[in-house]
């Protein structure tokens, strides 16, 4: 059986908990589909908070400064809902007031580099876990190097990577494309370069989308000379 090919570009940010959930739900959908599809998945950069200082901000201070006291009072309930949604997908969220909101530009550069070694999905997943479960600082290049090496990027390739200009132009180009495409929130899944699925949709929704957009092979009612399997001509 020939697998149907699906190209999936995932626009996401390391700071975004729904991006973590959405990635897990997409994986679940592909697992449930079995051998039906051959998915080519690529992570694309999208910074929700591009103006955050390089050292990041404490989560409570960030929400107070940007949204006021009212949203701060709602955080416990929001965290509880998010924690429950994560638990359903096997994710352990550890939210706290001191948890940093990071500048994620360098993290996106690492994900871009990981694509050159075929470990982009692994690095993106490891960054999500490091941030949301282990509460590690995603703006710390030493932490980013550690994660990259653990997921298969050669240590020598990362030695001076963050001190260089590599990946900066590419990350900015991805973000400019998202803006021009009208993507205003993440996660956003662009399928086969033309279909946009917004938000962390349930696995069932992804499966329905795949059925609609996957290029199916249809047999026309035409006869012609051919060789059969086994070499009979």
In angstroms, what is the radius of gyration?
Answer: 21 Å
Spatially, the strands of the biggest sheet line up as 2-1-5-6
Unreliable spans: none
Mean pLDDT: 90
* Proportion of helical residues: 40-55%
By secondary-structure content and strand pairing, the structural class works out as alpha+beta
Whole-Å distance between the termini? Answer: 21 Å
Largest sheet: 4 strands, mixed
Shape: globular
Percent strand: 5-15%
Notable characteristics:
single chain, 233 residues, two-stranded antiparallel sheet, 45% helix, DSBA oxidoreductase
Describe this protein's structure.
It is built from nine helices and six strands. The chain has helices at residues 17-33, 59-67, 69-87, 105-114, 120-132, 141-150, 155-158, 168-180, 203-213; strands at residues 4-12, 37-45, 57-58, 100-101, 188-191, 195-198. Residues 8-208 form the DSBA-like thioredoxin domain. Pfam families: DSBA.
List the helices and strands and how they pair.
Elements: E1 4-12, H1 17-33, E2 37-45, E3 57-58, H2 59-67, H3 69-87, E4 100-101, H4 105-114, H5 120-132, H6 141-150, H7 155-158, H8 168-180, E5 188-191, E6 195-198, H9 203-213
Parallel strand pairs: 1-2
Antiparallel strand pairs: 1-5, 3-4, 5-6
InterPro entries: DSBA-like_thioredoxin_dom, Thioredoxin-like_sf
Domain DSBA-like thioredoxin: 8-208
Pfam families: DSBA
Summary of the model, kept short:
By secondary structure, the chain is α+β, with helices and mostly antiparallel strands. The chain has helices at residues 17-33, 59-67, 69-87, 105-114, 120-132, 141-150, 155-158, 168-180, 203-213; strands spanning 4-12, 37-45, 57-58, 100-101, 188-191, 195-198.
């Amino acid at each position: 059986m020939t697998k149907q090919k699906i190209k999936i570009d995932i626009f996401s940010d390391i700071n975004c908990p729904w991006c973590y959930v959405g990635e897990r739900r997409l994986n679940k959908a592909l697992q449930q589909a079995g051998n039906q599809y051959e998915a080519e998945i690529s992570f694309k950069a999208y910074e929700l908070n591009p103006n955050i200082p390089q050292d990041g901000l404490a989560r409570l201070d960030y929400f107070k400064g940007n949204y006021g006291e009212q949203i701060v009072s709602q955080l416990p309930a929001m965290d509880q809902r998010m924690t429950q949604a994560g638990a359903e997908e096997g994710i352990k969220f550890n939210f706290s007031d001191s948890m940093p909101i990071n500048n994620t530009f360098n993290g996106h550069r690492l994900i871009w580099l990981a694509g050159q070694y075929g470990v982009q999905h692994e690095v993106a997943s490891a960054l999500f876990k490091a941030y949301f479960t282990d509460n590690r600082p995603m703006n710390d290049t030493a932490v980013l190097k550690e994660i990259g090496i653990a997921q298969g990027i050669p240590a020598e390739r990362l030695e001076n990577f963050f001190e260089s200009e590599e990946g900066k132009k590419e990350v900015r180009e991805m973000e400019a494309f998202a803006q021009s495409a009208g993507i205003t929130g993440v996660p956003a899944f662009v399928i086969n370069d033309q279909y946009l699925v917004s938000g962390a949709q349930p696995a069932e929704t992804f499966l329905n989308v795949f059925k609609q957009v996957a290029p199916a092979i249809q047999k026309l009612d035409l006869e012609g000379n051919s060789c059969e399997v086994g070499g009979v001509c």
